[in-house]
Amino acid sequence: MQTLNVNSNLLIPCEGFLMSGSDSPNTACCNGAQIIDKQFQESDCPDREAICLCLKNAAQTLPIDLQKAAKLPALCNLTYISIDPNVDCSK
């Protein structure tokens, strides 16, 4: 698996939705999020925890609209990942 730092770049297109005034995520945002979601599904536990911690850290440190972040899984058809500052990454 590629390093998460590289993979987190896949979420850059989500910035307009998560941090600005866009009402919905664009196609590039959902495509990137779906790639990370699939990598999470196919990874073993340490990599899953690293992905989770990266997303959790982003939610805690960046000016992300958490209400929009909570909608991202449904809007982009994500199964495994979320951007939540309170997620328990040990599970």
TrEMBL record:
Q: Which terms does the record give in the GO molecular function aspect?
A: lipid binding
GO BP annotation list = lipid transport
Residue span(s) of domain Bifunctional inhibitor/plant lipid transfer protein/seed storage helical = 11-89
Alphabetic keyword roster: Lipid-binding, Transport
Stored InterPro entries: Bifun_inhib/LTP/seed_sf, Bifunc_inhib/LTP/seed_store, Plant_nsLTP
Query: Is Repeat found in the keyword set?
Result: no
Task: Kindly give the Pfam families that the UniProt entry links to this protein.
Answer: Tryp_alpha_amyl (PF00234)
Q: Does the record bear Transport in its keywords? A: yes
Checking PANTHER family in the record gives: NON-SPECIFIC LIPID-TRANSFER PROTEIN 2-RELATED
Report the sequence similarity comment from the record: Belongs to the plant LTP family.
Q: What is this protein called?
A: Bifunctional inhibitor/plant lipid transfer protein/seed storage helical domain-containing protein
